[in-house]
Amino acid sequence: MGGFLVESALLTHGLASVTDETLLDRWPAGMDCIAWVDAGEIRTGSMAAYLPFRARAGELCRIHCDTLDQALADGISGALTASGTMAVCRRLGLPLAVTGGMGGIGDIRGEALCPDLPALRDIPATLVSTGPKDMLDIPGTLSWLMEAGVQVLGVGTDRYTGYVFRSADVPLSGLWTGDRLPEPPGRLLLLQPIPEALRIGDGSLLAQGIAAGKEAEARGVEYHPAANAAFDRLTGGYSSRIQLDSLIANARLAARLTGGQAA
Questions:
Q1: What is the number of structural domains in the chain?
Q2: Looking at CB atoms within 10 Å, which of 64, 194, 215, 220 has the fewest?
Q3: Closest by alpha carbon to 161, among 170, 172, 174?
Q4: What is the CATH number of the domain that holds 54?
Q5: How many Cβ atoms sit within 10 Å of the Cβ of residue 29?
Q6: 263 found inside a domain
Q7: Looking at the domain assignment, is residue 261 inside a domain?
Q8: Where are the alpha helices (DSSP H) in the chain?
């Protein structure tokens, strides 16, 4: 069993100050597993192959599991979220998707219940994630997953304490101790959090990022890219750097779990 894909929404819309040159330099060689949709076609490939798509970020939407089929039928171009990547994994017969921060339950238009949650319940693919984003109802999100039969296991920890901030302290289903995916691979969420010592220390910045996201939402544009851009600005790019580092760490974990095989 092998093969995994990395979502493209964070790389496309979430790393405001990270340059293409940095992405090329930092992305692991041979990790040709980024997934996106271009003119209704699923694309997967290396960072070099992906970057021309990223250059069009302003015209690209975000594609979830419940909008993937229509995007393909309509010839849409868009970056894949965690659930969108899981849906592509299902189409391609791959067992594992990789994301950074994931959605959940929260006060975000169209994401009172983010598609990432039912995707974890319904799609036969494991997800490796850093964890639910800080502005969400983290206890409610994790409780929903566990009650839906999804195992939520931590890598190196059995508690989840937040994404780029220390915003929660919630017990998980347990600790991940395996070195290969179980079969079948569905209904499993592996969380590999950013070490607390590396997270943003000023918790007051979280409220400012939330305000930026809500203001964008009121203008009819996406919440998460606006919130991420605010965190990037408020931290001098630090929030983007730690998110990129975390996504790379999650991809490396996925490579180990699938025997080193990207899609």
A1: 1
A2: 220
A3: 170
A4: 3.40.1790.10
A5: 7
A6: no
A7: no
A8: 9, 20-26, 47-54, 68-74, 82-92, 116-122, 138-147, 204-218, 223-234, 238-257
- Any idea which residue has 């990037």 for tokens? 232
pTM > 0.90: yes or no: yes
DSSP-derived 3-state class of residue 181 = coil
Provide the pairing of β-strand 78-80 with 96-98: unpaired
- Which string of DSSP letters, residue by residue, matches 18-56? --HHHHHHHSPTT---EEEEETTEEEEE-HHHHHHHHTT
**Which residue has 């597993």 as its token pair?**
33
- Side chain identity at 183, as an amino acid letter? E
Paired residues of 102 in beta bridges:
132
Backbone CA torsion sign across 141, 143, 144, 150: positive
Distance CA 33, CA 68 (A): 18
Structural domain of 172: 4-256
Is 127 among the domain residues?
yes
DSSP 176: -
Provide the b/e sequence for 63-74 (b: ≥16 CB within 10 Å): bbbebbeebbee
Q: Tens digits of per-residue pLDDT, 23-65?
A: 999 999 999 999 999 999 999 999 999 999 999 999 999 999 9
Q: In whole angstroms, what is the distance from residue 209 CA to residue 213 CA?
A: 6
pLDDT, tens only, 116-163: 999 999 999 999 999 999 999 999 999 999 999 999 999 999 999 999
Check: CB of residue 114 under 8 Å from CB of residue 85. Answer: no
Q: In this structure, is residue 53 part of a structural domain?
A: yes
98 Rama class: left (phi>0) / alpha (psi -120 to 50) / beta: beta
